[in-house]
Amino acid sequence: MALFPFCKASSGPIRVSRIQLVLCCFLLSLIIYYLHGSRAAARVHPAHPIFHPLEMDRGRKVTDMEVLKGAESQTPAETPWGAPLVWGDSRHSASCRAKFAQREMRIGLLVFVVGTYARFIRRFLYSAETYFLPGQVVTYYILTDNPRPLDPPVKLGPEREMKVVPIVEVPGWERLAHRRMTLLGDAIQKSIDSETDYIFCADVDQEFVAPVRAEILGDLVATLHPELYGMPRNAFPYEDDEGSSAYVEEDEGDFYYTSEFYGGAVSEMYKLARACSLLILQDHADGITARGLEESYLNRYLIDQRPTCVLSPEYSWWDSDLSAQVPVHRLLSLGRQCESYNDKQREHKC
Known about the structure:
By secondary structure, the protein is an alpha/beta fold. The chain is built from 8 helices and 10 strands.
């Protein structure tokens, strides 16, 4: 069958009308355009959505970290090693809550209240009473050098109690950061071990603003840093001093975790506290200070001992240009929020 039936061949000279000639040329151009477009489509593979705002699909290196946060936010359900990555409203979280509802559990929430940070403690406790594991047996462990801000006592709900653990005054945040792991280990060993099943550590300059429930429970629980979630590995501020006990090699690490909120089973938390305190003591003896202080050693430990449960940035968030977009804000860092506002030179009462 002829491709163009109206362009008939004959033994003599080909004779076609002007209309037939125009139609033949038009159809031929359509075929050429279609074939060219098919080949082009076969050659082009669209880049992953996260690379478009970075223009990585065109070979351009972009270092502006804020641009990356414009990429489509994602809520993966698990980590590369199979641990749950927790989003509070997910089906997995609902399943966890249903599972733990059948168990009797004792949960501890520990904070350090030292120096000027005492001004945050009442706000922290009021918010925890509203949103932190409502309906569960909870003990607040307040490690402080000054119990006066707790007078009069904060009214607690049923099956909630507060224990004040005196510590020696530690002037300066940096010095406290070097001692927190040791103090945590001592507190677990002296009393927490026999009184709770799970213990969580939180910075006191935070506020719970949405429910944080049993989905957070696990043997070893870490929280993703909101400004570094979704960032490429080379953006993580791991310790880069090879002489430090917190040093992380370039091919190590999956995520960067915040020290604002972490926890787990009491036995696992004791192991973490002891291991990190030994690393800190070793660096102190060598005259080394890790760039992220306590957070650097925490990340070093969590690379070697991967968490069994990873909390999304819903559980540690503050408003900054770099913070990941998340469905719900559950725990806000007031301290880091103020730092972000100060960086932007905004007026904000902290």
